[in-house]
Structure prediction request, 328 residues.
Amino acid sequence: MSTQENNKLSRRQFITAGAAAATALSAFPFVRTGRAQSDKLRIGAIGVGGRGTGACANALEAGKGSVDLVAMADVAPDQIEKSLNALKTGSRELQGELQKNIKVDKDHMFTGDEAWKQLLAVPDLDYVILTTPPGFRPLHFEAAVKRGLNVFAEKPVATDPVGCRKVRAAAQEAKNKGLSVVVGLQSRHDPAIQETIKRAQDGAIGEFKAGSIHRMGGFLWHRGNDPSWSAMEYQCRNWYYWTWLSGDQIVEMVVHQVDRMNWTLGAYPISAVANGGRQVRTDPKFGNIYDHMSVDFEYPNDIHVYCMLRQIANCENRNENRVIGTLG
Prediction:
């Protein structure tokens, strides 16, 4: 953006764009210096589990008093109180004056299947945080853009091709409307990763020849069952274990590593061959995802990237990207 174009931005536009980005990374400087505006930003959050609560805290901390949290929505009736308690006195407690920026009253706590629609209808919202299970992201993102809201959407933004196409179309509409949209791929905002990839692209390790991705960890959470929950609520509370909600580990978690590889190589895979299965996570409570898989990604110029994923306890853990060049 040129200096001339920059000068055309109103203070409100500037802080809105910055605050949406700050939800992904709380150190965005243009949020910290944006307090000169006369009115505060009003934000709402759809999906306030652990990630949603953290995103709310990030936005309020980065806003330094210029952002008010005014509405929350979640399918689970008990989740909003848990989230507010975490922000006020718990694991994500906001310090000092920031407590005054939590302004979610009873009339703006929305629960149930239609909660997201009720939140998006709240007047005078500036941007919305989308942190439900990923399977709902395309629907919520499309509706938020249609409403004209700036968006922070946690990754991944979809779990299937239909959802991806819906997000692409909504993203173009957001661009046409001049909205700020940020996705939770935090590597894109990490100066160390930015510099490392820049040096690799500038030839520090020579011509790229091959690569590997490892995302190998142990057992994850499971939130159990409750006779009062419907089948839908049970799956939503244990969303990671259902492919329609999470996309499995390669979509939900390894999106970070694949994104970094695409970024480094400056390309997308042109083909992929994969396998996987359930060796340990065989109980029906673990839904229909795998506990291990591997993929051979083929990129242009006959560059192959081997990707190994695993979530089995008491094994060696590894989380890394590696690119091999002619010089190192």
